[in-house]
C-alpha cells in the first residue's frame, strides 16, 4: 500500500480572516516599501572607491566593480536596506500563501493590493497628492478583487 492511498487526516483550511490578513500583509510589504526604496535609491550617493579610478583596470572590470560597490553601499544604507528586507519578506509570505491558497485568487489579489499600497506609500513617503481619479481607480481595483473572490465562492 502506497502513502497516497491513505493521505491521513485532512488539515483544516485557515479561516477567511487569516487569508485576508495574509493577502494584506503581502500587499503592504510589496506596495508600501516600493516608494521608500525608490526614494533611497534616488538620494543615493556612492562612496569613492580608488579601484574605480585606477587606469590599469579595464573598462569591463571597472563596470563590474562599480556594480558590486553600488550594491554593497546600498545595502549598508538603512534607508534602502530596511524597506528592501520588508519587501523581500513579503515575497516569502507570498510563496507561503501560494502553497496553500488558490493561485487564481492569490496572484491577482496580492498584486492589486500592492498597487493600492504603492499609491498610499507614495503619499506617505513623498507627500504625493492622491487625485480623485486615482481614488476612483483604487475603488475599481477593490471592486475587481471582490468580484474575483465572489466568483470563487
Attribute tags:
153 residues; mainly alpha
What is the strand and helix layout of this fold?
Layout: H1 16-31, H2 33-42, H3 50-53, H4 59-76, H5 78-100, H6 103-126, H7 132-152
Helix pairs in contact: 1-5, 1-6, 2-5, 2-6, 5-6, 6-7
Explain how this protein is built:
It is a single chain. This protein has 153 residues and is mainly alpha-helical. 76% of the residues lie in helices and 0% in strands. The mean pLDDT is 89. Helix 1 packs antiparallel against helix 5, helix 1 (16-31) crosses helix 6 (103-126) and helix 2 crosses helix 6. The two termini are 36 Å apart.
What is the element string, with H for helices and E for strands? Answer: HHHHHHH
Give a quick account of the main beta sheet: strands, pairing sense, barrel closure: none
Helical percentage? over 70%
Distance between the termini: 36 Å
Radius of gyration: 22 Å
- The total of beta strands comes to 0
Q: Show unreliable segments.
A: none
Helical segment tally? 7
Q: What structural class do helix, strand and pairing data support?
A: mainly alpha
Strand content: under 5%
* Overall residue-averaged pLDDT value: 89
Shape: flat
Amino acid at each position: 500500500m502506497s502513502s497516497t492511498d491513505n493521505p491521513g487526516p485532512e488539515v483544516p483550511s485557515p479561516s477567511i480572516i487569516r487569508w485576508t490578513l495574509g493577502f494584506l500583509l503581502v500587499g503592504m510589504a510589496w506596495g508600501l516599501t516600493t516608494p521608500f526604496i525608490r526614494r533611497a535609491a534616488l538620494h543615493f550617493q556612492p562612496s569613492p572607491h580608488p579601484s574605480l579610478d585606477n587606469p590599469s583596470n579595464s573598462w569591463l572590470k571597472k563596470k563590474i566593480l562599480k556594480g558590486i560597490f553600488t550594491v554593497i553601499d546600498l545595502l549598508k544604507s538603512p534607508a534602502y536596506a530596511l524597506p528592501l528586507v520588508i519587501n523581500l519578506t513579503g515575497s516569502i509570505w507570498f510563496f507561503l500563501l501560494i502553497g496553500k491558497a488558490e493561485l487564481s485568487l492569490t496572484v491577482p489579489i496580492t498584486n492589486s493590493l500592492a498597487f493600492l499600497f504603492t499609491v498610499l506609500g507614495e503619499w506617505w513617503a513623498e507627500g504625493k497628492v492622491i487625485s480623485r481619479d486615482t481614488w476612483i481607480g483604487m475603488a475599481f481595483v477593490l471592486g475587481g478583487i471582490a468580484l474575483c473572490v465572489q466568483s470563487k465562492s
